[in-house]
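In the design runs reported in the main text, the only information available to the sequence generator was the tokenized backbone. The following block is the verbatim input for one such run; it is reproduced so that readers can re-run the procedure and compare outputs position by position.
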């Protein structure tokens, strides 16, 4: 959002519905525009607390049921769209930028470079911790998402800590460690970094925990700030499911995302790409030089330094990044020192995190599982076989 100076893959409610069944709000409508002007971001969001007016709303959790019927951009190699909930967590930190945690849906892509990396249509969660220390942006992919299915997404404070537990479909999928306690505001919605987008989503039961164990509707909701270049019509009403509408699922894209009668067939393409990758040699620390090059290109690395590839488990890598992921599958971890930035960034130019890049990859399917851009350099050689690549 334009009022945030920190990086986040904030959500556009491209056609998303924030259903607030536990409160009554005056109907509001944000009219659609035809272009994303200025920073070239399109939004449809509703927010409360610190997200809107700087007055923290004490909260120990944020949750909503989310669904997407389609989510696609015309240039997936360079553009992005999301549907999510987002929580500010920095009300007791003296930082120039927010710390935060978010979870929801993100649009995928099949990499067109040498190694054939796959960034799938994923449920995801992400956080930014202590941005005074190199931004520390981390993004964790939960699983592929299916269209047309309601899934509960949530974030809950771990008492007496600075940690937050993330859940998806009523199951804990990760813990963000040291992201800051005393959350002060929340948001639901969608965002796109392009007007060439086709999306429709909904949200229901948007709720927060004020710290007493109860889950209630926000005391108020306010539409995205003026100047956010809202492309997507959004409506907040007193119905049980409120919606924002972005062009819809039958709008043809200018390029990039194929359609058949308006149906999104990308999941089939992703599965075909996975099977094609399974037929390739399994990635190891010794044969991943092309992967390193592709990651460097994707993250627009400047002043590229030493790269390291480590064979380890996903859970062990997560622990090194102050996160808890209950996933012991074997992965390769690609680390590149230098000045990289998040691919397909959704933030303002002056706030994009830059620094060393780390990506975890499934060695059989070549699916990207996690990524990070931080100011830290970590030695992972104790976790498994590590090869340094020039």
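Verbatim output:
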């Amino acid at each position: 959002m334009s009022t945030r100076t920190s990086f986040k893959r904030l959500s556009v409610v491209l056609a998303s519905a924030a259903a607030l069944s536990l409160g009554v709000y005056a109907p509001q409508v944000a009219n659609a525009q035809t272009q994303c002007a200025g920073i070239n971001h399109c939004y449809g969001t509703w927010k409360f607390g610190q997200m809107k007016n700087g007055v923290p709303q004490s909260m120990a959790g944020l949750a909503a049921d989310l669904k997407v019927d389609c989510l696609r951009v015309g240039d997936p190699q360079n553009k992005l769209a999301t549907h999510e909930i987002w929580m500010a967590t920095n009300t007791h930190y003296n930082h120039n930028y927010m710390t935060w945690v978010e979870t929801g849906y993100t649009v995928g892509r099949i990499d067109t470079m040498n190694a054939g990396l796959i960034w799938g249509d994923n449920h995801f969660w992400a956080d930014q911790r202590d941005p005074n220390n190199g931004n520390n942006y981390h993004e964790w992919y939960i699983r592929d998402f299916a269209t047309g299915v309601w899934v509960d997404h949530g974030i809950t404070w771990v008492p007496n800590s600075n940690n937050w537990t993330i859940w998806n479909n009523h199951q804990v999928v990760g813990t963000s460690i040291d992201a800051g306690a005393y959350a002060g505001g929340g948001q639901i919605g969608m965002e796109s970094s392009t007007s060439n987008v086709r999306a429709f989503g909904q949200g229901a039961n948007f709720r927060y925990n004020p710290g007493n164990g109860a889950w209630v509707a926000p005391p108020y909701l306010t539409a995205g700030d003026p100047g956010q270049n809202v492309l997507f019509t959004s409506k907040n009403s007193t119905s049980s499911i409120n919606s924002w509408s972005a062009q819809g699922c039958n709008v043809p894209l200018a390029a990039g995302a194929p359609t058949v009668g308006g149906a999104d067939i990308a999941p089939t393409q992703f599965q075909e790409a996975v099977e094609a990758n399974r037929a390739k040699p399994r990635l190891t620390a010794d044969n991943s030089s092309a992967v390193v090059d592709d990651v460097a290109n994707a993250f627009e690395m400047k002043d590229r330094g030493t790269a390291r590839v480590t064979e380890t488990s996903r859970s062990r890598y997560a622990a090194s990044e102050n996160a808890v992921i209950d996933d012991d599958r074997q992965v390769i971890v690609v680390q590149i020192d230098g000045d990289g930035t998040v691919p397909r960034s959704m933030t303002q130019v002056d706030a994009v995190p830059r620094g060393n890049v780390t990506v975890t990859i499934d060695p059989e399917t070549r699916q990207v599982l996690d990524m990070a851009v931080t100011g830290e350099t970590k030695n992972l050689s104790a976790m498994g076989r590590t090869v340094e690549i020039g």
